[in-house]
Design goal:
Number of helices: 14
Distance between the termini: 29 Å
Structural class: mainly alpha
Oligomer: single chain
Helix content: over 70%
Length: about 260
């Protein structure tokens, strides 16, 4: 639990740092100091850069984009230009961090990274059977050409602490029982890898919503701004994501 609190505090401090950077960025842009603007902006963008990279890698694993067609660096460079050109869209400093992820999402959508899957999976997620979830995990491990994709290449989630992750999935004391089961499994297989695979195997839009809530600690209101959805839809998507992950873990660890 101590590690969970440390992560919460660290992320909250970073949210404050991004918020406090908004007015200096506006001033630097007004003064035409583009180099200083970029240097400061880069300090608030590490999580956004990883968000872009992860989105492209997921699209590659799903066969949505082909190898070497898009590079994270190119999208990230475009994001910097995009932020500079459109900073006036931000109404107040408290919206700045969410807005950065919104602009990143817009770039990903323009590359047609997530569009093909979002509607289909969102409508049908409650109908998934256990067999379908297993197939979803298997399909995740191949790229568009049928070659194996090393999970290490997709492994850039920052919340590595299992207790923290389970707390965000179960939201009650049941994660303690699951933690005990994970410890029993340790050495025989890789339960930590199962959790990461299960999250990456979520439908792309649902996965990014879940990660924005649990990794970035954005509120449903913030995520609604990023995704362009209603707050109610975001809350329902988070609930569905947690339900699906809970069922995945129960299938894996509670079966004889």
């Amino acid at each position: 639990m101590k590690n969970s609190l440390h992560y919460d505090q660290r992320q909250a401090e970073f949210h404050r740092y991004v918020k406090e950077s908004f007015q200096p960025l506006k001033r630097l842009r007004t003064e035409g100091k583009s180099r200083a603007f970029t240097e400061l902006l880069l300090k608030v963008l590490p999580d956004v850069k990883r968000y872009i990279t992860r989105g492209l890698r997921i699209a590659l694993s799903r066969g949505v984009i082909s190898h070497n067609k898009y590079k994270p660096e190119d999208l990230f460079d475009q994001l910097i230009i995009d932020v500079y050109d459109n900073l006036d869209e931000v109404g107040e400093s408290g919206e700045f961090h969410a807005w950065l992820f919104q602009r990143a999402d817009k770039l990903l959508e323009e590359m047609e990274v997530e569009e093909e899957f979002a509607t289909y999976f969102y409508d049908d997620i409650d109908a998934y059977s256990r067999a379908e979830r297993e197939q979803m995990k298997e399909e995740f491990s191949t790229d568009g050409d049928g070659d194996l994709v090393m999970l290490e290449e997709l492994d850039d989630i920052s919340y590595k602490n299992r207790e923290y992750l389970l707390k965000n999935i179960f939201l009650d004391d049941s994660h303690e029982e699951m933690m005990a089961l994970l410890e029993q499994k340790e050495g025989k297989e890789s339960p930590g890898r199962l959790m990461e695979t299960a999250i990456f195997s979520l439908p792309p839009t649902m996965r990014s919503v879940f990660e924005l809530a649990t990794e970035q600690l954005f509120t449903p209101r913030d995520i609604a701004l990023i995704k362009g959805f209603s707050v109610d839809r975001i809350e329902k998507m988070l609930m569905r994501a947690r339900n699906l992950l809970q069922e995945t873990f129960k299938d894996e660890f509670l079966d004889p």
